[in-house]
Backbone:
């Protein structure tokens, strides 16, 4: 896939994340559009280009956000790597798999965020955050994957398998 | 064409990606992150502003649909409220007139902090929010070139929003009082009891460190106290909705419902002529 298309395409998703997704927030928790797309891509394309997508998406989010720079990159990379790895050993074609993987990816990304925020001195008591915030985001992202995963799957079929520059 | 990826290439990519993430984290506290964020904000500001406007329109449509269901009931409630506020307004006009006379007598009309920040405000639009839910901040379309500086208080006509945490050329980042890293010195309007308002991720903030032996009533108004010099005194923050105290903790704390609705924040005022005292905790 054209790297410029990936860069600007994911950039647009990141912009939608910071401007439009808050409108869709449920109880103050906004859906993670970029997380859902990157994890879906990892499930469809394994770790191959998913890491590149996670890297580009994470850097865009870090450039648009205000937390420690690298927060979103690290979270998305961890989620994409884990989901890609699991998907490469699992050979299940259940329709529930995208939902479960998006839920797992969201949890992993958030755990990384919490760890990095704690390391950088932010006070985030896990009891305040895990159930009311991360739990709700997992549900919201899983629901968002229902319309998004088929769209990402169409793109994945068009692109086919990819060879990365370092291979 | 599908090509099998070797384990080595995958490991190489993972290593490179992790290296970039670690490098970014290491550089985040240096001067490197700021120009990147400043340039990104400047380049994407028009698109962010357009998308934000679209989002606000969508929000209005959603809320209109939502409101239609309860419109009749709300109308009756509001009419009753208008009647009671009209009476209250008359009473307050009297109080204000008396207050003016007393101030003139004491000759300190223009020296109190609550008056001095008026007139030094610039209006900004909220153009985007945080990508994640763990940090609560917004980006506004005012920056260095508009005279914005780190630490300046940000308010709306309804009350305190937060403070400027990062300033770029044409935009600024505002850390909301609901962020778990935010602390504001506050007081209860009726008893003048002092405490510290702490943000909590996705939950109403709490007014902490209140003395345990003094009563706190549900409905008490919470204002900035002006202590520590971070915010002007007297800015409304919210209202106490519940009080928590247990035998283990030395203080009691009050859960506060903010007067500002942070989910529908569109325009804010930056108090530009209030200079916060530097190097103090938030």
Residues:
């Amino acid at each position: 896939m054209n790297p410029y298309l990936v860069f600007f395409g994911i950039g647009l998703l990141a912009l939608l994340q910071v401007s439009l997704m808050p409108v869709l927030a449920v109880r103050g928790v906004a859906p993670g559009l970029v997380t859902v797309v990157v994890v879906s891509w990892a499930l469809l394309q394994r770790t191959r280009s998913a890491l590149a997508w996670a890297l580009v998406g994470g850097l865009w989010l870090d450039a648009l956000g205000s937390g420690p720079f690298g927060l979103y990159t690290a979270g998305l990379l961890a989620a994409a790597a884990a989901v890609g790895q699991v998907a490469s050993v699992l050979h299940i074609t259940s329709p529930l798999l995208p939902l479960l993987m998006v839920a797992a990816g969201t949890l992993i990304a958030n755990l990384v965020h919490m760890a990095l925020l704690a390391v950088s001195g932010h006070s985030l008591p896990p009891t305040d955050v895990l159930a009311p915030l991360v739990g709700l985001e997992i549900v919201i992202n899983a629901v968002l994957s229902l319309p998004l995963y088929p769209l990402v799957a169409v793109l994945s079929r068009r692109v086919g398998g990819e060879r990365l520059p370092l291979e | 064409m599908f090509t099998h990826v070797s384990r080595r290439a995958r490991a190489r990519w993972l290593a490179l990606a992790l290296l970039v993430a670690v490098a970014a984290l290491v550089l985040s506290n240096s001067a490197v992150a700021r120009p990147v964020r400043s340039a990104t904000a400047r380049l994407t500001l028009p698109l962010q502003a357009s998308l934000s406007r679209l989002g606000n329109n969508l929000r209005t449509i959603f809320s209109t649909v939502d409101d239609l269901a309860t419109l009749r009931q709300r109308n009756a409630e509001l009419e009753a409220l208008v009647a009671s506020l009209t009476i209250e307004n008359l009473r307050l006009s009297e109080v204000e007139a008396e207050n003016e006379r007393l101030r003139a007598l004491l000759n300190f009309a223009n020296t109190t902090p609550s008056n001095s920040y008026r007139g030094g405000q610039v209006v900004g639009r909220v153009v985007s929010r945080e990508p994640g839910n763990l940090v609560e901040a917004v980006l506004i379309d005012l920056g260095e070139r508009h005279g914005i500086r780190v630490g300046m208080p940000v308010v709306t006509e309804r009350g305190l929003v937060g403070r400027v945490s990062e300033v770029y050329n044409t935009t600024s980042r505002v850390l909301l009082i609901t962020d778990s890293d935010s602390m504001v010195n506050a007081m209860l309007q009726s008893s003048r009891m002092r405490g510290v308002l702490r943000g909590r991720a996705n939950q109403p903030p709490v007014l902490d460190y209140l003395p345990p032996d003094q009563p706190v009533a549900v409905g008490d108004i919470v204002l900035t106290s002006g202590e520590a010099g971070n915010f002007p005194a007297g800015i409304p923050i919210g209202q106490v909705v519940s009080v928590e105290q247990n035998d283990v903790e030395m203080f009691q704390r009050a859960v506060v419902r903010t007067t500002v609705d942070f989910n529908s924040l569109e325009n804010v005022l930056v108090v530009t002529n209030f200079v916060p005292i530097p190097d103090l905790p938030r």
Summary: Residues 163-167 of chain A have pLDDT under 50 and may be disordered. Chain A touches chain B through 64 residues (CB under 8 Å). The first helix of chain A runs from residue 3 to 19.
